[in-house]
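Lab notebook, bench 4. Still working through the backlog of constructs that have no structural model yet. Next entry is a single chain of 212 residues. Request: give me the C-alpha cells for it.
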Amino acid sequence: MDEFKNEALLSDVAAYYSLKLSEHGQTARGVDWNGEEGQAQRFREVCRLVDGTRPFSVADLGCGYGALYDYLLLQQYNFSYLGVDLSESMIAAARERLRESRTARLLQASAPDVVSDYGIASGIFNVRLGHADDEWSDYVYRTLDELDRTSRLGFSFNCLTKYSDTHRMRPGLYYADPCELFDLCKRRYARNVALLHDYGLYEFTILVRKVP
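Model written out:
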C-alpha cells in the first residue's frame, strides 16, 4: 500500500470516529461499541496481558476518549498511560477528561512516540469504511508492526472473527482470520502468544508476550 492510500485510510478512520464522538459523546457508543458492558469485557480480555503486581507503562492505540485509563484505575494498578488516537476530537476529549491525571499523556498520531511496557489496541481493526480487504489487511499488519516496535513486554489487540454467523456479518466490517493472525504473531513477534476466542462475542483477542 503506497503512502497516499495509507494517509487516505487513516484520514477516513479519524473522520469516522470523530463523527461517532459528536453523535454519542464520551460513551461506549461514541467509540462505536454497543454499550459499556461490552466495552469493559473487551478491556478485560486485552488486559490479561498486563502484570498488575508491579508498576508498568502502557500505550493505548486508538484510545478514544480514554476509557481504558479508567478501567486500569479501577483495577488499582500502578501505571503510566499514553493514549494515542488519529482523531483530533477524540484526543481533545481525552485531554479534557484526564486533565488532572499526573500519569496520563495524550498524543494525536497513528503510532506511539515512545516504547512502553505494553501496547494495547481495542476495536481499531473492525470498521474498514469501504476499503478493500487486502488494503485493510495491510493496515492491520503495519499497525501490529508498530505495536511490536513500541512495546517492551508485549502487546494485545482484538478483531472481529471470520467465524461469525454469516447472517450477522456486515459488509462494512472487517472479519479477520484468528488462525492467520496467531501464526503471524508467533512467527514474527514472540514465541509466547495466546489466542482468546471463548468469551461470547463475535471476535477474538490475541496476547503477544515478550521475554524481557
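Notes after review: Residues 3-209 form a domain with the Rossmann fold fold (CATH 3.40.50.150). The radius of gyration is 16 Å. Flag for follow-up if needed.
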